[in-house]
Amino acid sequence: MAEFATVEKSVAAIRQRHDGQIPKTAIVLGSGLGSFAEQINAATTIPYEEISGFPASTVAGHAGRLLIGEIEGSPIYCMQGRMHLYEGYSAQQLALPIRTMKMLGVERLILTNAAGGLRAEHPAGSLMVITDHINFSGHNPMTGPNDERFGDRFFDMSNAYDESLRADMLSAAEQEGIDVFSGVYLQVLGPSFETPAEVRMFARLGADAVGMSTVPECLTAVHCGLKVVGLSLISNMAAGVSAAPVSYEEVFDEAKKAETRITRLLIAFLKMVSNADHT
Ligand code: HPA
């Protein structure tokens, strides 16, 4: 759960290990995107299990630690690895790390993930800047009693993936000569990959990529007033879009291949937003 007192405890656990400044930008790294983390000059590294209340990640490829430091001169608060609904965590449990960063002073959040592509014109290896999401998971972390100290009971999602941060991500990509497209992310609960019939339905509903994360974090972030930008690596074509079956190995291997490119894009984006922080 992510009640105020629980969040305060997690904040205290982090503060005990890190008394320096808290970066304004945080990132959650998705499957196989760990190389970004390797380039961070971390002043502080804390395994999730040492942060009061943080659930440990159970998926291979998700390291499960918090890094606070800088990457090529830009301050960054990095969650290397995330929790998922399909691991059995409640949506409310997934809210805790996001509320914790907000209480520590983070202002904007980059959400990354690996996702299945729904459009043949954007094959595996493509990068998608998330314009919006469809919550098909059946869960919302903001159900239950609302604590006004975090945000309002009913909250607007019309600019959930912040327009100006999206524009920054697009210009960072252009500057680095990295191809990206803009599209809608749909979250399923998982852990099964979708059936081809579901995939056809999702494409008709207006989704461009399908995955098993990101939406609970985005909802929590928007509720508590963090600005969000999202980036999906199309790690595979969703079931039925290509003839090949979907496997986690493929997802992971494709993510590994794209790591350097994604890291370059993220570093350029961070330079852009952290320079703006200082002007
Ligand atoms: N479906 C759902 N989640 C995913 C996929 C997929 O095809 N690829 C990576 N995460």
Protein described:
With about 280 residues, this protein is an alpha/beta fold. It has one domain (about 1-140, about 160-275): Nucleoside phosphorylase domain (Rossmann fold, 3-Layer(aba) Sandwich). About 35% of the residues lie in helices and about 25% in strands. The chain has seven helices and nine strands. It has helices spanning about 5-15, 35-40, 90-105, 165-175, 195-205, 215-225, 250-275; strands at about 25-30, 40-45, 65-70, 75-80, 110-115, 125-135, 180-185, 210, 225-235. A five-stranded mixed barrel has the order 5-8-7-6-9, surrounded by four helices. Strand 3 and strand 4 (about 75-80) form a beta hairpin. The mean pLDDT is about 95. Bound molecules: hypoxanthine (HPA). Hypoxanthine binds next to strand 5, strand 8 and strand 9.
Residue-averaged pLDDT: 93
- What is the name of the CATH superfamily? Nucleoside phosphorylase domain
N-to-C SSE string, H for helix and E for strand: HEHEEEHEEHEHEHEH
- What is the domain total for the residues? 1
Rg, rounded, reads 17 Å
Kindly state the percentage of residues in helix: 25-40%
Distance between the termini: 38 Å
Shape: globular
Structural class: alpha/beta
From the 3D structure, determine the CATH topology.
Rossmann fold
Q: CATH class, anyone?
A: Alpha Beta
The CATH architecture can be given as 3-Layer(aba) Sandwich
Uncertain ranges: none
Bound molecules: hypoxanthine
Q: How many distinct beta strands?
A: 9
Strand content: 15-25%
Number of helical elements: 7
Q: What can be said about the biggest beta sheet?
A: 5 strands, mixed, barrel
User: How is the largest sheet built, in terms of strand order?
Assistant: 5-8-7-6-9
